[in-house]
Amino acid sequence: MAFVIHRLALLVPTVLGVTIITFFMIHLIPGDPARTILGIHATPRAIAILHAQWGLNRPLADQYWLYMDRLLHGNLGQSLYYGSGVSGLITSRLPVTLWLIIYAALLAVIISVPLSILAASRKDAIRDHAVRVIPLLGLGMPAFWLALILQSQLSVRYRLFPVTGYGTGFAGHLHSMFLPSLTVAIALCPVIVRSLRASMLDVLGADFITTARAKGVPASRLFVRHVLRNAVIPAVTVLGINIGFLIGGTLIVEQVFGLPGVGSLLVQAIFERDFPVVQAVALVFGIMVVLVNLLTDVAYATLDPRVRFDR
Amino acid sequence: MSAISIPAAEGSPGSAPQAAGERAQNRRSRWYRQPTLMAGLVITGLILFLVVAAPLLTSYNPDTQNFAATLQGPSAHHLLGTDQLGRDTWSRLLYGGRTDLRIAFIAVLLPFVIGTIVGSLAGYFGGWVDIVIMRLVDIVVAFPFFVLIIALVFVLGPGERSIYIAITLVGWVTYARIIRGQILVAKRQEYVAAAQAGGLSAVRIMARHLLPNVISQGIVYALSVDIEQDILAIVTLSYLGLGIQPPAPDWGTMISDGQNFLTTHWQLTTIPGLAVVVTGLGLSLLADGLADLLRLGQS
Amino acid sequence: MTTAGPNRSVLEVIDLHVEIASRRGIVRAVDGVSLEVPAGHAVGVVGESGSGKSMTLRAILGVLPPEAKITAGQVLLDGQDLAHLSNTQLNRVRGPKIAMIFQEPMSALNPVMRVGAQIAEGPQVHLGMNRARAGERALELMRRVGIPDPERRYRAFPHEFSGGMRQRVMIAIALSCDPSVVLCDEPTTALDVTIQDQILRLLTSLCRESGTSLVFVTHDLPVVAQVCDELAVMYAGQIVEHGTVREVLTRPSHPYTLGLVRSAPDVDHVRSSLVAIPGSPPSLISPPSGCRFHPRCSIAEEDCVTTVPTLNPIGAGRATACLHYERCLEALDTQGADR
Q1: Which site among A273, A286, B169, C292 is 20 to 30 Å from A231 CA-CA?
Q2: Counting beta carbons within 10 angstroms of the beta carbon of residue B125, is it exposed (0 to 12), middle (13 to 18) or buried (19 or more)?
Q3: Would you tell me which residues 113-142 of chain B have a C-beta closer than 8 angstroms to some C-beta of chain A?
Q4: Cα A169 vs. chain centroid, distance in angstroms?
Q5: pLDDT of C10-50, one tens digit each?
Q6: Is 0.80 surpassed by the pTM of this model?
Q7: What percent of chain C has pLDDT over 70?
Q8: How many Cβ pairs closer than 8 A exist between chain B and C?
Q9: Span of A90-94, A125-129, B107-111 with lowest mean pLDDT
Q10: Would you kindly state where each structural domain of chain C is located, as residue ranges?
Q11: What is the rounded average pLDDT of the residues A257-268?
Q12: How many CA atoms lie within 13 A of B205 on its CB side?
């Protein structure tokens, strides 16, 4: 428990930093931010409203304080496009994105773990090389392209899955979200397989595995109870580190598959030049990543008893 | 409790010069023998060649539209057929690759330089310099790479220049981390203490002594993972219309242009995508090969 | 220490050869080793590091490192040849019939698995016990090996134990399925001297109680003297002498054994200086011709360089590979005058 508190405390400066960066984004815009954002809708009155809303004529520190004040009250600004509160928009769309992320992570694990076991159990054999090379294709694969291909073949041509949309009910979600989640999972697999295989090979060379073999533990049990249990620890860290990648993937995938999630919200906001939404989503994603990193640390401590007692 | 103090021996203690010569010879012969490295070099080399030699390999201008020959399949005139505006796919592929690869290769440079400098400072000086820099790194890393890129491009406006700026602002962190880590280890070495004892300035030590030894990891990352990441970012931005603006050819725009014809003329979208995948494969193999080589050289 | 009677051998190693593939060539780590382990007896195997004694043990159990393999020979356990069994078949034998205790208890135990579960695993896998029953058995074993407060420590992790306690855990694991032979690979080398003694006593008493045989590998002569009935001396992958512990240590018949005995500190007799064996261990890729010890031997003669000696019996249960073993006994007698 003390461990968790300790970690949470370390988070604060990072979270603050995240807010500072999102705050600053507006000042990166060349020229008058209000005018640039409004584009063709830039009437003097609209500009003046935005100036007032964002306090653009006040000193920087004041602006930041204003920003933080609004944030802490849960106010993420007003969408220029929808006209409604951004926080409302985000909360309504967050479940979809969370579904996608969790589903994709699960699929990635389901695919990667057996592949890694396959490779590590016979190092340098044909199957090891196959498992090492094939994922390399996934590393270079643009997620949106894979999404398009999967969609056109499996959804449009063979009608196995709905082309777009989130579906209704749990089973409906499972069905509709399968292709989008699979796309992200395939992009994630190479990284996980590489790391899991390496850590499995490390574990396989360890003394306690010899002890287990000397005990006569059969190969299947050996792999699951001894090898995997130890090898999974660094891999969990890798998965956690790649959460940023996972989230980045949702942007495009939600767009292609027409999922009403936060990612597609961001993409649309960019097209519609809806700055408050862009700023707010960036903030939300940033905080999500920080939280996931915390969770990863906690998971690591749960899995590895040695770490717990060191605190 | 035994007084026998004889070290474990598997082979007779060889003479030092002989062993060193052996190692050098091993390293030399190994360079060619690494299948991953060679495969990576071959694939990447081939792609680079095709892209650089584009004017020689196709007579068509990638932008020339020809409404008399739209959506054609592969033929003698058009190696890979044409798209819906009658533009030759093969030349668009080659010139698009030129654009994408050129931008990616250039885009790696500034983050590499900035990240290396910042990482060296953090690693060498330690203390509050290190703390401040690493906090900054943590914050930038907190954002998903692509989210930050897309937000920055939004703010700066679409186009090539924005891509460079966005990638630089976001991409320096990994280099900073890598170099900092390497320097933390390297600065404990004897030759650093000797240089410090000799009264050399910190900058000189860092530049002349530490960096040359430490920079190889950064270069490996740059050449392989980072370029690949940049290519993907560029292509994705272009697909969304935020990156390379038409009519400049680019793989992302090709994919986006072709997506309406996926069920009828799938090659328009599939081919540029495959180009990205194969380029990625070549770079990944190169990365793995270089990493293996580095590891072998250290053992 | 009992004298060896006409006991049935529970474990027989016959002309075992183990080769290791290394970058510089093939290492003949175990080059024609034969051993007999009678039921209920403790057989010691001594030698310096690199002599092949650990490899022999691992070859018996089939847990060699991936670069090593058995190239010839047999390992007969109750009539079954372990050297030619598949891994699945070997798994049925490991645990219930034969078990092993390793040198480094910290790295030999699974760091993320609770100690009780590790002890209970053998009975679960081999004796078909369910989790509860196996857990009870693990508790019994923990008590037998002298781990205090076993109910609480059952759920502990290896890093929470001291070195000596961890080794007790390893012993519990080894005995969990009542094997007839326990192989020990330098089990006390990594422990404090005071703890060493406790562990050795524990090991010997447990094995005497249950009639389990021990094969005890070490480089430490006083330890072997404490624990074992018989002794085999290994050098450069081969056995160069064997006999009862008393005979081999008091009347060595091989110059290497003589060197070992001379260089081991002896608390009963004050010595003026320790005499180390000159030279260094030979290459196992291209060993010296003839007798492998000849480059370091003080009584070597010409035929030692040219003839490859074999292990020859020189009395009841005694054998030596030295062509001039009588000179050893002479050398010892002259030395004896110094005491």
Answers
A1: A286
A2: middle
A3: 135-136, 138-142
A4: 24
A5: 899 999 999 998 888 888 889 889 999 988 889 999 988 87
A6: no
A7: 92
A8: 61
A9: A125-129
A10: 246-338
A11: 90
A12: 23
Over residues C261-300, the pLDDT tens digits come to 877 766 455 444 556 677 778 888 888 888 888 888 878 7
Q: What is the band of A269 on the pLDDT scale with cuts at 50, 70, 90?
A: confident
Three-state SS string over A153-181 comes to HHHHHCCCCCCCCCCCHHHHHHHHCHHHH
Cβ distance B135 to A255 less than 8 Å, yes or no, reads: no
At B298 the pLDDT is: 56
Residue of A nearest to C185 (CA): A211
CA dist A102 and A239 (Å) reads: 12
- Over the stretch C241-266, which tens digit does the pLDDT of each residue have? 989 988 888 888 888 888 888 777 66
**Beta pairing partners, C44:** C216, C231
Of C181, C169, C110, nearest in space to C142 by CA: C169
User: Is B155 close to A143, i.e. CB distance below 8 A?
Assistant: no
Residues on A contacting C at a C-beta cutoff of 8 Å: 206-208, 210-219, 221, 225-226, 229-230, 233, 303-306, 309
Quick: pLDDT tens for A272-286: 878 888 888 888 898
B96 and B250 in contact (C-beta within 8 Å)?
Answer: yes
Q: Of C284, C233, C265, nearest to C47 (Cα)?
A: C233
Taking the alpha carbons of C118, C119, C122, C124 in that order, is the dihedral positive or negative?
negative
Residue C213's pLDDT is 92
List residues bridging with C217 in a β-sheet.
C45, C185
* Subunits with 3+ C-beta pairs closer than 8 A to B: A, C
CA distance B286 to B19: 29
**In C24-85, which residue ranges form alpha helices assigned H by DSSP?**
53-61
Give pLDDT tens digits for B166-188.
999 888 988 888 888 888 887 77
In this structure, chain C runs to a length of 339
Q: What is the pLDDT of residue C277?
A: 76
For residue B156, give the nearest of A28, A140, A157 by CB distance.
Answer: A28
B150 at A interface, C-beta within 8 A: yes
User: Nearest-CA residue of chain A relative to C66?
Assistant: A205
Q: Which residue of C has its CA nearest to A215?
A: C95
Q: Does residue C132 or residue A300 have the better pLDDT?
A: C132
Surface-to-core class of residue A220, CB atoms within 10 Å of its CB (0-12 exposed, 13-18 middle, 19+ buried): exposed
List of chains touching C (3+ CB pairs within 8 A): A, B
Q: Is B124 exposed, middle or buried (0-12, 13-18, 19+ CB in 10 A)?
A: buried
CB contact under 8 A, A207 and C112: no
If one compares C278 and A174, the residue with the highest pLDDT of the two is: A174
Q: Has residue C216 got a pLDDT over 90?
A: yes
Question: In this structure, are residues B156 and B162 in contact, taking their beta carbons and an 8 Å threshold?
Answer: yes
Answer yes or no: do B144 and A149 touch at CB < 8 A.
no
Residue in chain B nearest C221 by alpha carbon: B2
Cross-chain CB nearest to A216 (options C102, C126, C160): C126
Q: Which of A148, A285, A290 sits opposite B147 (nearest CB)?
A: A285
**Which of A29, A251, A285 lies closest to B143 in CB terms?**
A285
